[in-house]
Input
Amino acid sequence: MAGPFSKILIANRGEIAVRIIRACREMGIASVAVHSEADAGAMHVRMADEAALIGPAPASESYLSIVKIIEAARLSGADAVHPGYGFLSENAAFAEAVREAGLVFIGPSPAAMRAMGDKAAARQAMGAAGVPIVPGYHGLPGTSPSDEELCEVAPRIGYPLLVKATAGGGGRGMRVVSESGALTEALAAARREAIHAFGDGTLFLERYIPRARHVEIQVLGDNHGNLVHLFERECSVQRRHQKIIEESPSPFLDDELRALMSRTAVKAARAARYTNAGTVEFIVDPVTRSFYFLEMNTRLQVEHPVTELVTGLDLVRWQIRVAAGEPLPFGQEDIRARGHAIECRLYAEDPSRGFLPAGGSLLRFVPPAGPGLRVDAGFAEGDSVGLHYDPLLAKIICLAEDRPAAIARMRQALRRMAVLGVVTNWEFLRRLVDEPDFEEGKVHTTWIEERLAGQEHEEGNPPREFLAAAALALHEGRDRLSGTGSPRASDGSAIGDVSASHHSTRDHFSPWAASDAFHSGRKG
Ligand code: ADP
Ligand code: ADP
Ligand code: MG
Output
């Protein structure tokens, strides 16, 4: 079957580029990857039908270069561009440039992106549309409130409060302030960070809601006025305001609150004349159960697979179809959520070193497999993982009939996988999903910081026999391990356990490194 487009350029890299290439293949659409010099051998480049080099490693000269990406799209003869998430995905000027080049931008209109892109402007617009916003202060539209102005209004908002950047994203440009004495310094720090990260130091204030829940609603609209929601995702398991584990449905919502939040999200999207896939993020007060608009992400979300698993809808496919002008053939009442889905983000980062991004060669990577499991990876065994970009390696997602079954499935999935050669948060994820609080759904956005305070720096302390197995396997070399016919490779748990050594093993080729790591791990 021929798709609505004949060729799509994917202006991204890593797992999301791979995810979009897969959708293109299924739809009979040719795919064009773009890549930096550092990504010449990357998985998304290998998988795409065509690839274009767009510049050197720094993102500012490659994945963030509008000029180079438009040029690559023109040269390749693509008729549409998918931006993925991060990079240029929420950049209205990019969406406009794509349109001016005579191509289709797979996302909302530049106007909708602008309306939601500036957090203060979005607060203003949502407040006017009757969507609850967090009590706070964002000054007059289009202005940048001075420190004096913000200090003056702060007592009316009350403490603790949150200093936020209007251009913020990825948890950056944000400071929690617990008392008035700390405000001036927090404003300066947030402004510095926002200018550095986003080139815009405009700040606003919000009341800080302690131990809040982050619950977001997926929406999807076509160009013909149809707009539906695809229920919620609970994203409260975060570290430094960045999501690590997401699930749907939220264990916190009841049907009434779910219906109200979903309706409110559709109202918010309608007010912005929103089309294509988007996410309305809410912060929920755990005590009053009041919810407030946080921001709208005008793109595909990292955690979109949990929604795909519970609704059975392929969001990337629908993004492409509605961008091509197709009307949604289903209404709100046709959309049902079934079962329970959980996603864990596997990052190339070192929990024992303050979660510093880690690079290296993926000597061994055996993703979990089995009924109800999905892995969206941007890397394969043998790939090298660099330090230039977001350290997300893969997302492990599961679906089961209910939440306890989904948790059991995720626990097993994390046990029965192997990552060797690159330090990851694998052990950390295992610990999180093993926590009784997680099992009981008693999580909030500072749960990790509060519950696991001080533990982060401890080494994993893997059992002695796992380390011995790892040392032996590494000593014997990769070849024996990767033979699919070998009894070892077919025994998932043995392989999974081998990866217990990766945490502190620096020299993965040395059989002694693992046992050294064991000793250093024990003193932690
Ligand atoms: P999600 O809710 O989809 O997880 P995040 O805020 O975590 O959204 O951002 C998704 C991805 O985009 C992350 O990889 C993050 O590092 C990146 N990102 C977010 N905002 C920006 C930005 N302003 N500039 C560059 N990258 C960003
Ligand atoms: P970003 O663009 O970086 O994703 P958000 O506004 O979506 O910024 O907020 C990211 C996270 O910061 C939220 O998921 C939540 O953990 C925390 N947060 C944001 N606003 C508040 C608030 N008013 N009170 C408590 N926590 C907040
Ligand atoms: Mg957000």
